[in-house]
């Protein structure tokens, strides 16, 4: 996820927005969703798809209870769509 560039993540965000997904961003990342958090989530999705492709997976999960929760915003976007 840390190897995915900002421009690539922004392109994913723009694609989602272009498909009609609406975001209600706030300013406080501790209590509200911010665009920066969403861009980081997009990096997670790109990395997850690459891992799935590399290993030939049909499905994967994102494990927050294993420490990821302390490093990045939750992947609510993918889990709620």
Order of helices and strands: HHH
| Euclidean distance between termini CA atoms | 20 Å
- Envelope shape: globular
| Total beta strand runs | 0
Provide a count of the helices.
3
pLDDT averaged over residues? 85
| Biggest β-sheet strands, sense, barrel | none
Proportion of residues in β-strands = under 5%
Q: Report helical residue fraction.
A: 40-55%
Q: Which stretches are poorly predicted, pLDDT < 50 over at least 5 residues?
A: none
- Class by SSE composition: mainly alpha
Rg = 13 Å
Notes on the protein architecture:
The chain has helices at 6-18, 35-55, 76-80. The radius of gyration is 13 Å and the shape is globular. Helix 1 (6-18) packs across helix 2 (35-55). The mean pLDDT is 85. It is an all-alpha fold and 81 residues long. It has 3 helices and no strands.
Tags for this model:
mainly alpha; 3 helices; globular; 81 residues
Summarize the structure.
The protein has 81 residues and is mainly α.
Topology record:
Elements lengths: L5 H13 L16 H21 L20 H5 L1
Helix pairs in contact: 1-2
């Amino acid at each position: 996820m840390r190897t995915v560039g900002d421009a690539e993540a922004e392109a994913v965000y723009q694609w989602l927005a272009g498909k009609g997904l609406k975001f209600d961003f706030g300013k406080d990342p501790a209590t509200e969703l911010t665009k920066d958090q969403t861009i980081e989530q997009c990096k997670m999705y790109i990395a997850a798809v690459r891992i799935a492709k590399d290993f030939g997976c049909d499905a994967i999960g994102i494990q927050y209870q294993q420490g990821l929760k302390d490093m990045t915003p939750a992947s609510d976007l993918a889990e709620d769509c």
